[in-house]
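Researcher: Before we compare anything, I want clean individual predictions. No alignment, no superposition, just each chain on its own. First chain goes here; please echo the sequence and then give the structure tokens.
Model: Echoing the first chain and its structure:
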Amino acid sequence: MPPSLTSSALTAHRLGSNASALLPKTQCRHATLLRRPKRPYTFTQLITLSDGSTYLHRTTSPAPVYRSTKDIRNHPLWNPSSQKLMNVEEDEAGRLRAFRARFGRGWDSEVHEDPEQVGIHSPASWGCCM
């Protein structure tokens, strides 16, 4: 028996010449299995809005309670006609105070400068024809 025979040829050699007709001569490859997409586990979360109203929401976040400080109830873009939200600056993190301490109050919208006193902002000093 030659040592270079493969396992299928070796089995056919042991069983005789009739067994070689029973063994497959080509590979049989079935279709690959398409797996379902993984769906993450969703938690039930209690959303608390700024006015105190709450609702339940299914989300992937494991936090059981979410308290919103800025939402549709207190944002001026959602409530453009509300007078109590007009010109209100909420500086919870102190970022506006730090900006004003570093750069001054020249960027505030309440500060109005006279264009004749400041020549840079007047249209005549822009250097173009209007």
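Researcher: Okay. Second chain, same rules.
Model: Second chain and its structure:
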Amino acid sequence: MTAHTVKRTLSLFLAFLFLGTMIISALPSEAFTPPPLPGDEEEIAPPPPPVFGDSGEEELPKQPQPEIKPKPVPKPETKPAPKPQPKPKPKPKPKPKAEPKEPSYTVNELFSKGLNAYKGENGAAQSYTEALKWWGRAAAKGHSASLYNLGVMHKNGQGTAKDFKKARDYFLKAAQNRYAPAAEQLGHLYYGDSLGKPDYGEAARWYEQAAQKNRAFSQFRLGLIHYKGLGRPKDAMKAFYWFDESAKNGYIDAMVNLGVLYEKGDGAVFSREKAFQWYSKAAEKGSPLGMAYLGEVYYQGRGVPKDEKKGIRLLEQAAAKNLAYAQRLLYKIDSIKYMKYRNVK
């Protein structure tokens, strides 16, 4: 073999080796599936006036006349008729007794009374019906938190029948007051099928309003919407932005997804180091998926020194939390030791 051939063979080998190190192992799409949400109201008539009759006396009879013309007898004076007595004034109508007035409450007091009834605190008996009453009065004055709570109660069927449309209407009134939790709930209703077919465009609209107020889950959902192209064009960079915002606000699944995007170089600059950092943060906070992905990184030595024992230990921790992804990996690593996971799909 000539020196030229050896040199050429060596160059090809180095080129393939370089390309091999640049291959990104695609992580499963499960990383981008959100976990189940914990999240998973006679007057008495006066008597008639008495009837008074007329009174008077008759004239006296004339006396018999003697033969001698008597002097004319003067006519007796007639007594004047008595003046009629004045009619008595009718008795005044009795006024009905006024009912005691209910004390007036401020909107915050109405809200507090609803909260006490809802929770059965501060001497109030637990009663969803009473909570609906007090919050209904506060909501009539535009109190955002009361409107929101009424939406929750109609959504959950607490003290009333479940009614997702009524819940939506209450959330809508609160969201129009820029109340972020209500905007987030509207996002949930439209993202799911509670109101019929999902409306991802409308869900994104309300999630975005809530996300602007740092609602971490709304930011996470916006990331999914942009990454999957649900109701909006696919945009990995926007997905990365919202996952990053959500992770900064402490949402663990957003941390996992940032790790995935860094490791894929999708919407972000490829960086196994940053992927490792985000998987580690998620695992430290108890994320089964973070544990599984971190375990896989250690087991395969992706961007870190290979450590199969540490990798398997992390995978076992995730599998113990019933994460199917970790259980399948363990069975693949050792089908005898992890036989109990053989039927996991």
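Researcher: What stands out in the second chain?
Model: The first helix runs from residue 3 to 22. Additionally, The chain has 14 helices and no strands.
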